[in-house]
Amino acid sequence: MLDPASGRAQAHGAHRWRLGLVGLGNVGQGVLRILRESRTAISQRYGADLVVTAVAELGGGAVDPHGLDLDALLTELPAGRPVAGLPRVGRPGLTGRDLVESATPDILLEATPVNLRDAEPALTTVTRALELGVHVVLANKAPLALAYRKLRPMGHLTHERCLAVGAREPGAQLRFSACVGGALPVVNVGLRDLAASRITRFEGVLNGTSQSILRAIEAGLDYQTALADAQRRGIAEADPSLDVGGGDAACKLVIVANAVLGADVTVSDVRIRGIEGMSPSDVRAAALEGRRIVPLCTAEPTPQGCRLSVEPSPLDLDHPLARLSADEMGAVFYTATVDRLTLVSLEPGALPASAAMLRDVLDITERTRPLRRHSEA
Amino acid sequence: MLDPASGRAQAHGAHRWRLGLVGLGNVGQGVLRILRESRTAISQRYGADLVVTAVAELGGGAVDPHGLDLDALLTELPAGRPVAGLPRVGRPGLTGRDLVESATPDILLEATPVNLRDAEPALTTVTRALELGVHVVLANKAPLALAYRKLRPMGHLTHERCLAVGAREPGAQLRFSACVGGALPVVNVGLRDLAASRITRFEGVLNGTSQSILRAIEAGLDYQTALADAQRRGIAEADPSLDVGGGDAACKLVIVANAVLGADVTVSDVRIRGIEGMSPSDVRAAALEGRRIVPLCTAEPTPQGCRLSVEPSPLDLDHPLARLSADEMGAVFYTATVDRLTLVSLEPGALPASAAMLRDVLDITERTRPLRRHSEA
Predict the structure, then answer these.
(1) Alpha carbons B23 and B349: distance in angstroms, whole number
(2) What is the pTM of this model?
(3) ipTM metric
(4) Contact A188 B193 (CB under 8 A)
């Protein structure tokens, strides 16, 4: 059977899944690149033929029920040309919400920029998708950081609940393993691999920019020079406040606390101290005591609720997070059965987050079938 | 509704799962201990009420369709008394195969000692279970190390296939995440979290005994003293040959290669060198070059097949596996999308492997329902 989009034979017996992708920055483009390269291999291995039928970015999108031409998209996007200008398939003015309502994908992938004021327009797009029974995979952490409590009761939506009920319930599923450290599988390992273990404490270095700057300060640079250097290398953004101020890490921590530890917290529950005040002498003073300062996130369940903090903290040199390199992120779970389980990733660029979105897509396809109302003959 | 086994109320809406446990050593007893402590919490969180209805060890077992009394089992076992002697429920002579055929659990947990000659009696027990449609969770790695090719075509049995088809196909599922490093989620992360990434290389320190002895040699002990010390501390067995000779690590590597990398290999395909020959001067010579010798497993997919080795190898000090402590195991995946993903665990004792068996049980319960023929009113 020939796939009308690519002209290639579809893998025998693979189910066809229609993906809608909102947000065509680095992470979104990475999703398209991986699918262009690996669609056939994924189809053969996982029995899921992943077809991108709709995309949207600021200003418009493109739709083709038979599958968009990924080569065409990946020619326009890096050149900075809007996909809405593509002949035949372009849709000027198409929003994420429009995409959900009119293109009715089986799975919505949301990778628009983080907006921590009100999580829009992602929150509207995601809410609408879930209302319509469209599965959702998030790379944008804002909807979870700001509206987990709203999203949680929308049926079977939390990651924990999805994993718990698996394919046993109908309705849309929500996945967000890319939101906490990209490919670092913090949420998945916490929920799934430690399913039978009681987690007593969580620690993480979840903001790569802060880690990189602190390691540069350790090497002798002052804060301003280290920051400028990170900006020059593309590690820190022009406005670095969310990273160096601890807000980004706090959002990730809140997601871990709510989804993995079963808490009910928001960013305002996190004690936050950024790294802006750190000097080489601070770092050296810790080193003299045989310790290393890292931008540490901690979550600790207590009878009074989950205690949360983000702050530069000295760790003994044999602590797993003191052993990270300047370019690594990491997470440590302490549990009642496994003393200590550590995850560390070295992830330059956005492609690992793109791969994390696709692992979530495959987790959904493994547990469910495409909704019948969307499937084609 | 009252649970006849414990007298406690069953969690509302939880499905009842009948577990059969073969092998009542440290890992098996750990399963019973975790269930005694956490059955209610697991039931509430995952909707799976896990009831142990049958157990077997060398010489006999015990069966109670309403659920065995875990307190009674955990009184007899640590005291060295056979469970077959328990009043009413004891079954002298009951084998693993008998347990599968007569007690018909929903899920069989296999935790008997590793036998690398012919994998028996585990292989017979596991094969019979799968034939009868009983799901299987292995902690014993021998059946996979010796008979993966036999088990693979038994329906939908490989871990990869199970993840790929999820709940979409009927029939028994096989899980074995405890077989490679206990709670270290090597198999799960490789299959699931790197689902959309092409793995280009795998490295692991998968034998804790060898790692511990090498680190002691590094601290100045000669091999014999380090080994004797490890034996005294219960880290090395009386016959340490499987650990220090590399055979145990090779079995784990073969499981990773077959299940995660899609290879078709056996232990005879692994180039194996143990740590028995290592001296303090070897280790010091590496240190002078700024490197650390670790008991390294490697797997590298090539067009000619998967290249596999287990041997003490010098690594740069900033390599993630050179940073392990003496008591840690670790694994590193290199992929086309995520540069490097590292997993490290500190797991004293057998309880982490027990918890890993139960995470596999919960993965099965999330994807399937108890077989109707076994469920009770």
Answers:
(1) 16
(2) 0.91
(3) 0.90
(4) yes
